[in-house]
Design brief:
Elements (H helix, E strand, L loop, with lengths): L6 H7 L6 E6 L6 H14 L3 E5 L6 H23 L13 E4 L12 E7 L5 H18 L2 E9 L4 H6 L10 H14 L3 E5 L10 H10 L3 E5 L5 H10 L3 E4 L1 H4 L4 H15 L3
Parallel strand pairs: 1-2, 1-8, 2-3, 3-4, 4-5, 5-6, 6-7, 7-8
Helix pairs in contact: 2-3, 2-10, 6-7, 7-8, 8-10
């Protein structure tokens, strides 16, 4: 891997600037055009990463079309910003990362991929089989991998069901610590605590805090985070990244989404 290729992992794992927000785009739930508009609104509001993937309804075609549309929209605004000295073109240079449900939903247009193990799955499919199925494509396409341990906490939602996860309950501090230690021992750089898309409540603060204490990895938290206060609590517990997906899908109006996410990110950071 060259220095140029490694910028995405360095960017994602940089913990010097406090908790950051990322938007998750599910191509199965929106057109590529709508996804691009939502991403522009999110980045303008302060989101620092775009994840594309998620549900079992995604495939390589809609993932690729979505990533291409998002990239074109951001590149156009970056170019426009470069022509105006009062604007910061660097604001628009955020990575577009694959967050795949499996090997059938990949694209060479992404900056990187969360190459993850669903650590508390009871199925070999999500522990190693999907990874080995996708590895040749990833290597051939030259997509930078972000090694990640992925753990699903209660309530788990659809992700827990599909992933056949043995959910981590709110009181399972020692168990989440053990997974965090194992993730670090495997050489993963990122540890993701997921409550499930649209979860009734987010990952418990004590679980986030326990994971943070147990490892020196970049800690990502998602699922069930519907407002800035919930994001702030996760950040205070130790989350380096807060991921939201359903929140963006509630708004078709880009200006309204920009307004909501600006407030969300400000509250997340205690402003």
């Amino acid at each position: 891997m060259t220095n140029e290729e490694s910028w995405v992992l360095a960017y994602v794992c940089d913990r010097s600037g406090g908790t950051r927000h990322a938007i998750l785009i599910d191509p199965a739930d929106q057109s590529a055009e709508v996804a691009a508009k939502r991403c522009v609104a999110a980045v303008s509001a302060g989101s620092r990463m775009i994840l594309v993937g998620g549900s079992s309804g995604t495939d390589s075609d809609n993932v690729h079309d979505t990533i291409t549309a998002i990239r074109e929209a951001l590149e156009l605004i970056t170019w426009a910003s470069s022509q105006d000295s009062s604007l910061d073109e660097g604001e628009w240079q955020v990575p577009i990362i694959l967050f795949p449900q499996g090997a059938a939903a990949l694209s060479p247009a992404a900056d990187g991929i969360t190459f993850m193990m669903l650590m508390n799955s009871t199925s070999p499919r999500f522990l190693i089989e999907e990874q080995t199925a996708g590895a040749p494509f990833i290597r051939e396409a030259g997509i930078e991998t972000l090694p990640m341990g992925y753990v699903i906490c209660a309530p788990g939602g659809r992700a827990g069901q599909v992933g056949q996860a043995s959910l981590i309950e709110a009181e399972d501090d020692e168990r989440v610590k053990a997974y965090a230690m194992a993730a670090e021992s495997y050489g993963f750089r990122i540890f993701y605590l997921e409550a499930g898309s649209g979860a009734s409540h987010p990952v418990a603060q004590n679980l986030i805090r326990s994971a943070k204490e147990a490892c020196d990895l970049t800690l990502v938290v998602g699922g069930g985070i519907r407002d800035g206060k919930a994001a702030m609590l996760a950040a205070e517990a130790g989350a380096d990244w807060i991921i939201t997906g359903n929140l963006a899908e509630e708004f078709d109006d880009a200006d309204k989404l920009h307004q909501v996410l600006t407030q969300f990110i400000n509250e997340m950071n205690g402003a």
